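Here is one chain, start to finish.
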Amino acid sequence: MAAPHEGKDVTPLPFHRSTLMADRPPHSEHDSAPPFIKPLLRALDRIQAREALRPEQLTDRARALLAERFGAAEPPVEAAFAHGSVGLLGEHTHYFDGFALCLSLAQGTAVAVRRAGAGVSRVAFEGGRAPWTFDRARDEERQDRPDGTSWACLVEDLVRRLGPAEVQVEVAVVTTVQPACLDAYLAALGVATARALQARFALPFGTTALLRAVREVIAACAEQPFSAAYVVAAEAGRPYAFTLVDADSLDHLPVESPARDMLGWGLVEVERGPVCPPAFYRKQQERADKALALLQRKAFPRLTSFRNLDFLDQPRALDALPRRYRPFVRYLVSENHRVQKLVWAARRRDWQLFGALLLISHASLRNDARSSSAEVDFVVEQVETMTLEGMYGACRAGRGGCILLVGQPFIVPQCLDRIKAAFQERFGHAPETTLL
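Its structure:
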């Protein structure tokens, strides 16, 4: 599997699995319960055991990490936090500024910043072995870095882009966002870093300008297109809340979300790295741009974005394109229109339709965008076989190897167990599973 940053250390940053409750063994106290009650009691144990560090706890840990790695210092320290936010329907907005519906997680990233006492800038990650160092006073060719500092290039580039000229800084990062949720991971890291820099140095940026800068830096560092929708959702997120994002204007609208006892969520991590290499996504962007130019020339002279292509005009648009462009364009246009349907389903509390739309989205991602893997497809198929048992649907949680699944709260823990066992039998190893 290709790495997201060729020629550089790309091992994902460490994070705290201790705050993400893993599957627990059955409790002996339930052994005397009737057989049909035991699964419900065990599911209840796991639901009640869910726990995530609060934002203030993570920012306190980031401040403590700063002192632990670089020593106590007089300069004031500022810290900021951003929630991880996964796209329920959002991957299409990497290629044009359409609409996305995101789900914010309780997990997030905290970043603490202060002026450096030394003559260089340094970045430390909780769990990392050595700091990433760079000199703000000069441009340096990027070099390989120690393990555990993979995305420190993002922190460095944000410091260079946003921070006061030639001011050296010390930065500490603590995260509980799973690296396999790659888009959520990068957006939370970028937003938390930018907000910490803004607080420490009183940067003269409004929210929109700051978020656009974060998106541009992430795209450059990851060497692939990156949607502003994930950045906006990280900035605006509330745990387990839906956010509708316009990736063009960066406007966002909270969508009323259900109580946690109405929906259950889980994550299955099948790969730590991205499903496809950055070059694949760059080619997808080129394909989208060329297809749009062809449509402007042949059939829709006023069309400036796929977001403005009416769904009823899709057949005429596909007929105007060479065959090699049609599947991907069908994916982009259909996915953008599915967002509205997903919002409607969420507002109506129609969770069967909600889950069906996620499954349809994944089928389009697999068949038309060709952006999936055998492992990801297998997990989604397993969820689909359980729709009559209380599961609603599943989708890939961004471009990493993590799948988000949704169902009835007492059914999700059993689903995670069954997926783990079936995956082990099929692929020879068990995936990481998390009950959200």
